[in-house]
Amino acid sequence: xxxxxxxxxxxxxxxxxxxxRAVQRAMATPRLGLGLRPGAALDPAAKQAAATAAAxxxxxxxxxxxxxxxxxxxxxxxVASDGAAFVGHLARELALDQAAVIDGRQEAxxxxxxxxxxxxxxxxxxxxxxVGGASxxxxxxxxxxxxxxxxxxxxxxxxxxxxxxxxxxxAQLADLAHLAREGxxxxxxxxxxxxVASAGTAATIAAMxxxxxxxxxxxxxxxxxxxxxxxxxFARLAIMPLAQRRAVLGLEPKRADIILAGMAIFAxxxxxxxxxxxxxxxxxxxxxxxxxxxxxxxxxKPSHEA
Length: 306
Hints:
Layout: E1 2-3, E2 8-16, E3 19-28, H1 44-63, E4 70-73, H2 75-79, H3 83-93, E5 98-101, H4 104-116, E6 126-131, E7 136-140, E8 149-151, H5 155-162, H6 170-183, E9 194-198, H7 200-210, H8 217-220, E10 223-226, H9 227-238, H10 242-245, H11 259-273, E11 277-281, H12 285-300
């Protein structure tokens, strides 16, 4: 399970020496990072929603035959005063085999692991961007020594900072673009052969571009979205009221209110890196958590079970 600032995602999979195969997937949107400020406590209603969803996912995983369950929590639990305690509570209540709040560098490493498990072609020269609810992780996809950058810029936090009307005003959209560029300022001067975009916002952008009516992760993996396509979809969505946005093909209704901010981050990323396209990946952090945990489980098995 991947517990982020916006979503909680579940992947039940079979893992062996040749790779992994998904058995079941599920996602909930507890919005754990709702209104969160560094050092403050998590929103009680969001905590309850996350706990309820995690309990349901643990039951679902075990019913599907899962032999062990791991949970990794990211930015919301990193910055909240009670984040670590909440994850510890989930571990005890749900009898999880592993549960931890991971730091930005761990998140980057696991995202690289997950993306490379499904990436077509060489990783050399590619930068990975994982845009979450409250943070964006940037990492060299080929360089194992690169510990990555964790930027305090995410789709939920940027939405809360900028978008107050429905639909947003021109001034609010200008603020959105400005804050996205400002948040990515640490990347100034960085260059890459290409940009790989992972996590929910990236997958949603690809799904909209392809007109998906169902969740098709393998269609999203390695799809290409151009800067022009991104700009066209952004302009279309920006003038829609939220209720209309929720009906757009490929756009998950619960992500409709934060999609503009996520798209603004990717647009700013392509601008700052001087790229005209990005490769989208559904695989990322969740799959990295799976593979890392499976490797640990394999090492811990007695030799006669290996």
